[in-house]
Structures are given as structure tokens and as C-alpha cells.
Amino acid sequence: MLLCGDVLRLRFALSSVGRPSGLTRLCSALVALALTVSFAARAGDTVVLAATGATAATAAAAPARPVVERADPAPRAAGTVPALDESEALRAAEGAIGRTIPDAELLDRNGRPVRLSDYRGKPLLVSFIYTGCFQVCPAQTRALYEAAKGLDVMLGEHQFNVVSIGFNQPFDSPDAMRSFARQHRIEHRNWEFLSPPRASVEALTRAFGFSFVATPAGFDHVLGVTVVDANGRIHAQVYGDRLRADQLGAPLRELLLAAPPAATSTLAAMVERVRILCTVYDPDTGEYRYDYKLIFEIIGGALFFSSVALYFLFEWRDQRRARRSSCNAPRQASGSTV
Asked: 283 has which bridge partners?
């Protein structure tokens, strides 16, 4: 897109070719004009990509099936076996968005007390599991682990935390949670497995919008991950039993980029924010990679603004010299007459 200001600057530069620095101004204007056209074209592509990304984010935000794990997938006659109402479970989960999670005290896998407020300051991914599950919960946890490794590439290893909470108490004890993590080879420095007291399970799960029903075969429960922001408020619910990095990366990236920079923010922190902005999910590999097109757009934009700044700097310098010359000329003329 060509701006009227660019045309005026080009015309002014063309009319100034005869002056000593006219060639410099002309080259500067031509570079600025070329970069304007290139950057505007890139910006148009960016808008299209952003719209596509918004559509993908909307699709990812829609509940993915299945959203409820059935302990026994066989059809159940009404009134015979307890069953979880999927629509009510989804309504409860969505109703929890925006709610501040309670500062409950739990035990980590080594039996040490941990408060949920200890995780404030960074986004938190929360997954509810029960260790007696032999199919869906292990598969969901492994998928979350693979997604977390992908998020490490995009966001950095220390940008978020993950907790798995065992809701089947007293059976999901610290020992059971430790064995579950070891059995499924979950080794992530920012991931902890927590056991709440039996008396607080109902209030805790209700606060997160997590629904479950005990059945003779185990539990029917919601499948998904709760995304909590750095202030302890529930930001999003991401549903599904095999979540991908892009599904969790969208809300996490939104939280990290929207967070205001700290007063003591360093250059490294600013570079980290730019790095997060310049990553994109590659569906072919299932991993995040750098968006080199966006990086070139940023470099092109920086060059454009730099060239415009240089153009005005040269123009200001030449006009200042011209004013000085015009002021000195009458004085010299009057001195020679005397």
C-alpha cells in the first residue's frame, strides 16, 4: 500500500537532485518507497495469516470429542448405572472460567505440603487424573507430556508449570502418584503430581469445574486441561484426551504476550517475548518452529522506519545548512559595500 506521504517525499527528493545532497535524498526516498510497498504486502499476508490463526484458535477452543471418559463404554440403561451428564459437565467447566482457584494445600509425590498459590507468577496447566485408570488417564498424561515438551520449544522451559491432581482419595496418595509418574516416564522439571486431602476433593474439583461420577468400573470424568493465569484465575478449558501443543500453546501464548513487562524487565526478557511471537505450530511435524517469514517482516519494518528516519535527518541537516548560508550571504554583501 502506497501512502501519500511517501509520494510527496519521493517528489520532493526528485526535485532536489540538483542540490549537493540530492542524490542521497533520492536514494533514501527510493529505498523507503520500496520498503513501504514490500512491508505493506507482507502486512497483508500477515492479516490473512492472523485471520486463519483466529479460525484455527476458534476451532481448537470448541470442545473436542471425547470430552468425557467413560469407565465402561457399553450403553447404560437409564437409572441402572451412574453416568456423567456430558452437557452438564461442559456447562460446569465453562462456568469456572474467570474464577480464582482456591489456595488449597496438597501433598507432592514426596509427601511435602504444597499450596496452589505457590504456582502463581506463571501460567499453570492443571490435569485431574486417577491412578487406577489403565487406559485414558495414562494416554492423556503422556499426550500432555509430549505437548509440554513442544511448549518448551515455543515458550521456554521456565515460562509455565504443570500439575496433575489425583482426585480418587485416599487411593491417589503421594506414593501412588509417584509410581504413576515413574511408570509413564513423566520427567519434566516444572511438572508435579499432587494429592489433595480427601475432605477437600469435592470443593477443589468444583472450583476448577471438573466433574466426575463414580461407577462400578471406575470413574466417568471430564477429559481436558485447565489453563490458569499467573494471578490464579482460570483462563481457559481445553478439552480432549490427546491434546496437542498447539491446543495448549494458544491460551498460554496469549497469556504470556498479554502480560505487562516487569519493571525490572531485562533485554533478555524482551528478546524472549519476541521469540515467542516469532514461533508457529507446524502441523506436519507436530512441533513449534520459528516463523522466518514473520522475522523477515519485522526486519523489513525496522529497515523501513530506519530509512525514513535517516531521510528526515538528512533533510533537516541540509535545510539547516541552507538557512545558515542564506543568513551569512547578506552580511558578506553589506561588508564588501562598505
From this structure: none
